[in-house]
Design goal:
By secondary structure, this protein is an alpha/beta fold. It contains ten helices and six strands; from the N terminus they run H-E-H-E-H-E-H-E-H-E-H-E-H-H-H-H. Helices cover 53% and strands 12% of the residues.
């Protein structure tokens, strides 16, 4: 959907020179706390005005409260915004303002935010967990771990190095085509044929 322009302007007014985005329900496996820790490292080493927008429903209230407490402990109250219950147009505005999507989930299925980021041409820095690698293909930056300094360095690269940013976005169109529903049937047939062939069954 088109972005909510007024909402985007409000976000932009509060944004730093680097704006991170983290999207997903506020539950432990989404690991928003790791994105907050990485933002702290990034502000210490690269950009003291960097900000993070966390979009997600507080599905686990204790974790949601812990995130806010952790943010305060790190002195990031003015740097981290928590949004929930927003419209699709407002979410689109979040992607428009973002310089990078950071996804550090401990496990992840299809990962809709990854697709949303690709559609809005937002570079992705993600933990290589679950189906993230399959969804991204050759797009974005996949990390083997979640060390804050490592995540911060990856974000710094795609934000400040035009060549790194170009590499992170280079395969977006092709990957979106592969993920399109029109390709799903063909992919399923190819997968089943390969499995049948490997097991000696009839394709």
């Amino acid at each position: 959907p088109p972005a909510d322009a007024a909402f985007r302007d409000r976000l932009q007014a509060d944004a730093g020179s680097t704006t991170w985005l983290s999207v997903g329900r506020l539950v432990p496996n989404k690991a928003h706390h790791l994105a907050i820790a990485a933002l702290f490292a990034y502000r210490m080493t690269a950009d003291p005005s960097a900000t993070l927008v966390v979009v997600g429903s507080p599905a686990e209230p204790h974790y949601a409260a812990a995130l806010r407490h952790y943010t305060a402990q790190l002195g990031l109250d003015g740097a981290v915004s928590f949004l929930s219950g927003i419209s699709d147009a407002e979410l689109a505005a979040c992607y428009d303002v973002a310089d990078v999507l950071v996804m550090l989930s401990a496990h992840e299925g299809f990962g809709v935010p990854l697709v949303e980021a690709m559609r809005r041409r937002v570079p992705v820095v993600a933990r290589d967990a679950g189906a993230v690698a399959e969804v991204l293909g050759d797009v974005g930056v996949l990390l083997p771990g979640t060390e804050p300094v490592q995540v911060a360095a990856a974000v710094g690269s795609v934000h400040s190095d035009p060549e790194a940013r170009e590499r992170a976005l280079a395969g977006v169109d092709g990957q979106l085509r592969r993920l399109a529903i029109e390709s799903a049937g063909k992919t399923l047939v190819e997968t089943l044929t390969a499995v049948a062939g490997a097991s000696g069954g009839e394709p």
